Amino acid sequence: MNRYPAWKYIMLIAVVAFGTIYALPNLFGDDPAVQVSSARGFELDPALPDVIEEIMQAEEIEAKSTDFTPQRLMVRVSGSEQQLALADALRDDLGEAYVVALNLAPATPGWLRALNASPMVLGLDLQGGVHFLMEVDMDTAKSQQLERFVDDIRNLLRDESIRYRSVRADRESVIAELRTDADRQTAMTMIARDLTELELETFDGGETFNIRASVRPEVLTDLQQTALQQNITTLRNRVNELGVAEPIIQQQGAERIVVQLPGVQDTAEAKRILGATATLEYRAVDEQNDPFEAERTGRVPPQARLYQTREGDPVLLSRRLIASGDNLTSASAGFDQQTGQPNVQVTLDAVGARRMFEFTSENVGNRMAVVFIEQRPETSIVDGEEVRETRRVEEVISVAVVREPFGRTFQTTGLGSAREASQLALLLRSGALAAPVEIIEERTVGPSLGADNIEQGFNSVIIGFCLVLVLMAVYYKVFGLVANLALTANLVLIIALLSMLGATLTLPGIAGIVLTVGMAVDANVLIFERIKEELRLGNTPQAAIRAGYGKAFSTIADANVTTLIAALVLFMFGTGPVKGFAITLSLGIVTSMFTAILGTRGVVNLIYGGRKRVKSLAL
Amino acid sequence: MDIIRNDTHIDFMARRRIALVFSAILIVASIGSLVARGLNFGLDFTGGTLIEISYPEAPNLADIRGALDDAEYENFSVQTFGTSRDIVVRLPPEVAAEEGADVSTAALEALSSVDAGVEVRRVEFVGPQIGEELANQGGLALLYALAGILLYVSFRFQWRFAVGAVAALVHDVLIVLGLISLFQISFDLTVVAALLAVIGYSLNDTIVVYDRLRENFRVKRKGTAEELTNLSINQMLSRTVMTSLTTLLVLFALFYFGGEIIHAFAYTLIVGVIVGTYSSIFVASTAALVLGVSKQDLMPVVKEGADQPDQEDLPARFRNT
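Above: the input entities. Below: the structure tokens describing the complete assembly.
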């Protein structure tokens, strides 16, 4: 009686061994490291390790090891002084094309890494850093899109020589007013052919024949997703400029983005770079009128608008938009191949290219300007209600003469210096953002608090764990020690699972582990109390063990399933820290079922099972 | 070794009226406190800005207030946090609404004018739109958890038990909330997590007693529902106490060694475990009894010719004479 078949022992040993291996990496700590990646998200040059090797030799810094993947290169060094020296040297020598960031690389031994074992990822509350939750202003994204359709329809009608009275955006749709029914018919056909994103319906105005064009719902959803994705991409580029080792930039819900920057302390800088959302517009310069005159008299020609350049000079720009920031696919600073002058290379998408070609073919010798528009989110209280609005700050960042017709790619030259070129390129890239974003949540944890949190979290786990071990050993004697073995195995398994899942360990997560330690013994308490009871009823020790485990099982299962329900609800509804708690709690419940029932039974069977006579149980 | 004597025969059911009055008083007091004092909602729900900073030497709080006054902040609070060198500054949500996320940057500048050696430990900024969302989510989470549990217990036991369990949970949540309100513990997201954990824990306790009750209903030949309930609670008493003890041990470890941030969480759980233990003994079973749980409700459907479950006599000490 009370013997386990060999396979059960093998399984138990296998699971515990497996857990131990995958929990092990957490014991090795971190090495200071320097991480190099491409500033623009390109793959790294395979020759880079050799280049860095040379730099390190020149600086007399020795690497503990170097990892190279196309995405990033990580050099581990032995101390933080060497880390700083190496980072400085690399920043100087590699230039702007690379991002050099300080990092802590897990010092997991090679054989464990070969098994894909890695330590738990520490949350921002444990390692310090900034967490931002950003919201994309979808209303603005939609109205921007609508404005583009207004322009598209106007261009189309003009191209087809259809006379119209007006084309304008009206709330959720575009309204085109035409003069005759026949014009309307042609216009309908043209719009339906070229702008398939629109749903058309007709209605008659007083004297006009109108079309209402609304954006198809599925296109609108696409648009939202695109706006979000574009923001994420742009944010990623901007974060790269900050030089953060392992940033997390993720979509959350339909219109939000989570940005986590571990190790960042200068939050003001981070906010400035992330928060200033911008777009840009290419517009023709109005060459017919004098901007100084317009500024002086305040009389601006109807087809133009008055802007200011960065130097403060007035400039008149046509109201007609040539291309906007979301037509821009890339902008980079470089040097003109013929003259060696600094320039900015710009690439547009198909729509932008077509419009640009149309404009430049007709306007060689005329000037074109780039307007940089910053959207600054502001909230004010009006009549006790919060009103959120975005203020537009517009500035002309570049005025250049069109030398020849061009479309998809072109370059801007005549810039004062390489620095000016790279600044313009950066602004252009930033302007590729589709819709403004606003920081709606910030959580920053300083490095000292992070260190405190780790220490306190670790201490409370150890102290709580030891207290429970002592209580169990004293109260249940041999069986208590068996339960303690199971509890230890349970802790190892939780840590192994967290490490394998790549889950992030947070302070509430640690609280979840502590709580699990307290509650995991419940299964054993139930079993042991039941065994005691069976003994009191006069059963033999062997029968009592059997009955104890057998009868307690359904109770344990029921009790744990209900706790699991609560944990799952927490997981579904919780965000960030609460999720971490829910994950550790759920994992703990599952692993504790395994260790407390199967595990302890195995050990109890080893001790008492198979013996002919057991007089009493040490319980 | 036994903490609880193994042959206890405490007549819990006879004391259920006292327990009922006790629970009623606690609940009324809790509701009273919730109405009169309300919950001290933390930043997660109200929105606003919190800045925790550490100065090299204990600063003069008046200087800090002065610096914030000069920076034209209003309705802020300045408190020490843990040690006299650590300061927590809270700015109301209106400030954040006007300035957006830049508020923490501006406020930090003002704070470092008091002493340039100031070190930022923590900044939390929650926009007004987030707070409301989190509050809704938190409330929904509690409701969903209760509904899920109601379903599961109805399925595994019987609806009277489910109602009893949920009554016990509502009882626990109300009293814990009352105590949080009474001591004005900062009610943040971690406290919501703790409340859900309390639900899980208290339920765990209740289920264990129910499980035994079900077993006794099926196995014992004699005894009224009341006697059997008493028997079940007594049988599970040492387990209930032991598990509460181990859980409380780790919670106290968390409370004393886990640091300030986890304080409210640990407090909520400690209170919750104590109240949950009490309710699983006095409230959950009583409620099921009051709803008229009988042996027939829990008898498994016996198939023709199937073995009858073992029949045992009720120990004499549980018979009502």
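Note for the figure: Chain A has a mean pLDDT of 83.
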